Amino acid sequence: EITNINMFSITLSASSFLPPTTTNLTLRNCNLFGFGFHFFDGVTNLQHLDLSSNSLTVPYAGSTTQSSCSNQFCAIETLNLTNNSLTTFPTVVLNIDNLQELYIAHNDITDFNISNSTFNVIQSLKAFESDLPDTSAICPGGTWQTAHSSKFCVANSTIAVSESSSGTCTQCITYVGIIGGCLIVALIVLLLWQRARSRRRALSASLVSSPSSYYLARSGNETVNIQISDKSTAEALLEDPVIITNRINYKEIKLGKCLSRGGFGLVFVGEYKGRQVAVKKIRPERSQDPKDVKAFLKEIILMAELHHPRIVEFIGVAWDNLKHISAVTEFMESGDLRNVLRSFKRQGTPLSWRNHKTTISLHIAEAMQYLHCHNPKVIHRDLKSKNVLLNMHLEAKLTDFGVSRTQYTVQTHAMTAGIGTSFWIAPEVLLGRDYNEQADIYSFGVVLSEIDTDDYPFWNDANRDGPRGKLQEADILRQVATGNKRPQFSANCPAGVISIDSPVAVCTMRWCVWLSLLLSTSAAQSSSSSSTSSSGSGSSNGSDAGATTKAEILAQDWFQANSDENVTYLAVGVNSKLSNITDGDIICGKGVPSLQRRTTAALPNNGCPAIFTALNGSCTCLPDYNTTDSWEFFVTKKTTEIDYPLTMNDTEVLPIDTIRTLLVPSTVVSLSITGVGDGLQSISFVPQDVALPGSNIPVAVNADDARDVSSITAVRLENIDMSLIVMNTGHFFPSTTLNLTMRNCGLETFGFDFFQGLKTVEYLDFSENNLAKPYAGNTISKTCTTQFCAVQILNLTGNQLTSFPSVVFNLDDLSELYIRNNNFTDFNVTTSVFNSISALRAYESDRPDDSATCSNGTWKAAHRVKFCVLNDTADTEGMFLSGVFVFGI
To answer: Where would you find the membrane-spanning parts of this chain (predicted)?
Structure first.
């Protein structure tokens, strides 16, 4: 039994996780969205399975064939799927022969229409629990029946059975009727077949003679005619350049469970060349329609043209026939935004604007900016929380371009009304009027309300006591269309988000700049009154002191000498480590970070003592940091010379130029600085003072702390341009650091002194950089002399490694290694290296190409990756250690 443990990544990546003797398994409230292909390998005797209080959308048990079971769950007697995210009745689980108890209450199931045979199976269960259908639900094709206190709409039988069989004449009539009916059915089938055949021939001919096209607006009224191949035969698909370029081998795709079902398509989790992927296919019943096939191909062509970090990556298109056309994209482990918000809220740990909501919102904005600035402009037309996917780090990307379109010249073509899902549709679309990208901006506002309230749009706090159903939905949409209803936001929503009022004004601005400013500033009028009170002791510390003290004079001198004009600093206090200053932090009070700026004109005094105002200094105190042991800052490069810093709160993005050494209190153990905005943020780091004892960048010990070392054990830098800093700075991190992350920081190499002082790092994450070497390990077996000798977990995913990093296996304590998405293609390893890989607790990398050969060894697998293990007779040990590793070179 595993309860209240985050098993999200483990269930997706681990194989043969459970002992084969397992008969009772509970994974309750473990943040489960799905399972990898091999998680349950070896388990065939499960009898009691409890997956309650997770976010599963499919039951992961049963079979589509009645009374036939071929997966790991054939012996299940009790299945508990309570409190998940099932949207359809899990009929497949009823095909488990031994099933006796089924619990599916508190899911999202609204359709209780079932067949008579399914109803009979439910009746025969020893125990069954589910929610009840809505009181307004109707049963037009059957009758309401009750089993285990639950109501079902049981479909009526379609075959009428005659109750009279007496008399030869009656029998003859019956026989004639049966034969005649069969003939009629056969004739209808024949006519339909001929008609379909004629349609396909006519369509194929018309497509060959006149391929369709659509018009894309480049600028103004200028249009360019783009030819899109709409031919419906497999041969014609090969003629389209985009399809040809992006086609991959259908046989290399391994399909897993169906993750979601829409009116048009199905999305499966899959595997392609060792990589977990998502595979979208047309629903079988719609794959017969050439129009649907063409629509899907147009979506694929559009997906292939979009390349942005905030758009779900398109990997390729595959098929063996037109019924099996598959769009293969990257797999987003956390699922869609709606389910993530719901899951965290249900677990009692809802996301906050400070820890994730701001980043998710900015990621969506970056995607929309890319689409709307694309040439030609792309309008998504179906922006909603279900179409925002998140990876394991809760980074958001946009998906589902099935109804997206490139913008026509508006004067010559009216946009189609009714596209999108009801509550996210802009009023002008509901009214059938022409629309443009502003419709996406409205939809984004609705998504922001979901992010803020963790609830369905228009059905959140202001409507929580009202009924939920189609009648209310129609009424809500009427009010939206007439401008009488707007999305609701919570009282804790950042003021910048609530201030969104006019989509017309917003659409002319760049998305990311607009949103980051909204999240990083408040209206000056509404904030000026609260700033004085929030600054608290910071203001009184200077203004109430009466005569200027010697310490304050020294602080004035230091501030004036060390603060460049018009540069906004993130700092804690001023240089309170100077020997003459003993009163602790001067600005904002002890242990409170602030933004500080010196300019030619005095700015509003938002917590800055009067002595600094006299020097044209301005400060903004950041509240709540003195009550937490984890400091997290979201920063963006200051882009405009407005009156920075404005009054801010702890949920917002800080527009700054520089981070001074942060004099952290002894209670702080974790520091995270994340860049927000378009590309890497060019934030500089400067020490408080060259004479400052222990002036590590970016943190040092606070003056009021008697200890000589920092308490910081975890440092995370992400989306900050560190490429020059790492070459020119020494002793950058506190020596107490155990967990170190420098993710997406533009790293290519390191200066010799950058990591000096680090000897105890156990978790090291250099992912999403441009490193050509692992920067950990040593060429001498089982001997480590670098700063990272204690590393247990090493993440080098998404770098530029060109050869297999064998040197890292000389780290004695290494237990996890992640090197996926690099550039090495040689998987030849020695026996000792292979044994080291096998002994790891976790390992991820790309897989060798199918055409790879192993002439000097034997193919062996470890962690689902094949390696060519060289023969022991060959003197190869030095081959893989020949690239002598010298730190910093």
So the answer is: 173-193
- Across 368-468, the runs of DSSP E, i.e. the strands, are 378-379, 388-390, 396-398, 405-406
CATH number for the segment(s) 223-330: 3.30.200.20
Sorting pLDDT into bands at 50, 70 and 90, what band is 829? very high
- Catalytic positions: 382
What is the C-alpha radius of gyration for the chain, rounded to an integer number of angstroms?
32
Residue 878 vs residue 18, higher pLDDT: 18
Instruction: With H, G, I as helix, E, B as strand and everything else as coil, classify residue 684.
Output: strand
d(CA 110, CA 114): 12
Nearest CA to 786 among 701, 714, 884, 698?
Answer: 884
Q: How many CA atoms lie within 13 A of 515 on its CB side?
A: 23
Tell me if 571 sits within 8 A of 618, measured CB to CB. no
- Quick one: pLDDT at residue 709? 55
Alpha helices in 570-682 (DSSP H): 610-613
The Cα 741–Cα 850 span in angstroms is 34
Cis peptide leading into 376, omega within 30 of 0? yes
Nearest CA to 230 out of 285, 291, 280 is that of: 291
Query: From start to end of 346-465, where are the E strands?
Result: 378-379, 388-390, 396-398, 405-406
Lowest model confidence (mean pLDDT) among 157-166, 830-839, 879-888 = 879-888
Give me the residue spans of the domains in the chain. 1-158, 179-207, 223-330, 335-519
Q: Which residues are registered as beta bridge partners of 142?
A: 155
How far from 689 is each of 66, 126, 482, 594, CA to CA, in Å?
Answer: 76, 75, 61, 17
Within 53-167, residue ranges assigned H as helices are: 116-124
Topology classification of domain 1-158: 3.80.10
CA distances 125 to 102, 129, 639, Å, are: 8, 10, 65
Residue 376's φ and ψ, nearest 5 degrees, are -80, 160
The residues pairing with 852 across neighbouring beta strands, listed in sequence order, are none
Choices 3.40.50.80, 1.10.760.10, 1.10.510.10, 3.30.420.200: CATH for 335-519: 1.10.510.10
